[in-house]
Amino acid sequence: MSMTQTVEDALKKPFGTVYADKMAVARYKDGVWTPFDIQEVKPFEMHPAAHVFHYSSTCFEGLKCHRQVDGSVHVFRLDRHIERFRNSAERLCLPIPDADQVDAMVCELVAECADWAPVFPGSLYVRPTLIGTLPSIGAAAGPSTEALLFVILSPVGDYFSGGLRPLKLLVEEKMRTAPTLGMVKTGGNYAAALYATRKAREKYGTDQVLFAPDGFIQETGAANFLMISEDRIVTKALDPSFLHGVTRDSLLKIGARMGKEIEEREISVDELLTWAKTGECALSGTAAVLGGVGSLVYREETYTVGTGDYGDETAKMRSALVDIQRGKAEDTFGWLKRIS
Ligand SMILES: *Cc1c(COP(=O)(O)O)cnc(C)c1O
C-alpha cells in the first residue's frame, strides 16, 4: 500500500487517533538532557512510581504542519509554541528544555516523516510532550528531577469534516478551570473541565462549557473565546487565568489587518448575551482553528447567537488564517517555516 493511501485512510479515522511511525525522544537525568534521537513509535517503559502518574507533572503543545499548494511542508508558528511549552515546564517545575532542542526535535522528525503530511484540508498535528519520570511517590511536594521529552505526529483531517456545524455552549459561572494552572498547557486543566463538560452534555446537549467565574468570560476547556462582528473582535485580555492561544493571537493580528477594531478586555455574561442578539461568537484553537457558536445556555435559558448558524464573519476569519497556513495567501507575518 502506498504512503499516500495510508495517510488518506488515516484521515477517515477520528481526529488524533493515527500516528506517524517515528517519534523524537530525549531524557533528562542528573541535571542534563541527553541528545534526542528519532526512533520507532513504541510504548515507553516506566516505573509505576513515576512522578507524572501521581502528581501530574505533565505538559504538552499542539501545533500543525501544513502541506502547501506547491507540495512543500511548513510548520506554523513553531517559535511561539516552543516559548509556551517552556513556560509550562517552568510553571510545573519540570526541567525546561532548550528552545533549540525542541525546535530540532520537531523539525528533524517532521522532515523524516514528511510523507505523513496530508494535503489540505488535512494537516500534520505535532504533539511535543514533557513528563516527570522521577520514580518517587515521596516527592509529593517536590518537583521531578528526571523527565522524558517526546514528540509524536498525527495526520489529521478537517476537524469539521461534516461541515461547519455551529456549537452549543453552557455558560458556567461557578466552576472554573484549575485556577493556578490557567496559563499552563497541562492535562490538569483538561481533567478539571471534563466533569462539567460531560454533565452539561447530558443535561443540555451542549458541546462545550464556557467558564465564566464570577460572571466574566474566561475560556472553554480547550479553546479561547472570541466575539466577532463586521467591524470588531472582542476577547478577554491576557492574564494568568487562561491559556494564551496562538490561534487567538493569529486571528487578532489578521483581524486588525482587515481593519477590525481589536478589543482585549473583560467581557461580562450580560454583555455576551446582549452581543449575541446581533454579533457572532467563536472558539479558537489549533485543532479546530475557529468554531462558530450557534447558541448559549445560561441559567436554564437558551440564547441564539446571531442567526444561530456558523457566522459569516467567523467563516471569513477562519479562511483568512487557513489560507496563510496552506500557502494560498502571502505569509506577511512570517509565521511559516519550511521543513520539507
Ligand atoms: C491549547 C489550548 C487552547 C488553544 O491554544 P492554541 O494555541 O490556539 O491551540 C486554549 N485553551 C486551552 C485550555 C488550551 O489548552
Automatic annotation (TrEMBL):
The protein's required cofactors? pyridoxal 5'-phosphate
The keyword Transferase appears for this protein: yes
Q: Name one GO biological process term.
A: isoleucine biosynthetic process
Q: Which InterPro entries match?
A: Aminotrans_IV, Aminotransferase-like, B_amino_transII, BCAT-like_C, BCAT-like_N, BCAT_family
Q: Which UniProt keywords apply?
A: Aminotransferase, Pyridoxal phosphate, Transferase
Modified residues annotated as N6-(pyridoxal phosphate)lysine in this record: 185
Q: Which GO terms describe its molecular function?
A: branched-chain-amino-acid transaminase activity
Q: Which EC number(s) does UniProt give?
A: 2.6.1.42
Where does this protein act, in terms of pathway? Amino-acid biosynthesis; L-leucine biosynthesis; L-leucine from 3-methyl-2-oxobutanoate: step 4/4; Amino-acid biosynthesis; L-isoleucine biosynthesis; L-isoleucine from 2-oxobutanoate: step 4/4; Amino-acid biosynthesis; L-valine biosynthesis; L-valine from pyruvate: step 4/4
Main EC class of this protein? transferase
Reaction(s) catalysed (UniProt annotation): L-isoleucine + 2-oxoglutarate = (S)-3-methyl-2-oxopentanoate + L-glutamate; L-leucine + 2-oxoglutarate = 4-methyl-2-oxopentanoate + L-glutamate; L-valine + 2-oxoglutarate = 3-methyl-2-oxobutanoate + L-glutamate
Q: Which Pfam families match?
A: Aminotran_4 (PF01063)
User: Has the keyword Transferase been applied to this entry?
Assistant: yes
The task this protein performs is described as: Acts on leucine, isoleucine and valine.
Protein family: Belongs to the class-IV pyridoxal-phosphate-dependent aminotransferase family.
Q: What is the protein name given in its UniProt record?
A: branched-chain-amino-acid transaminase
- Upper classification of the organism: Bacteria, Pseudomonadati, Acidobacteriota, Holophagae, Acanthopleuribacterales
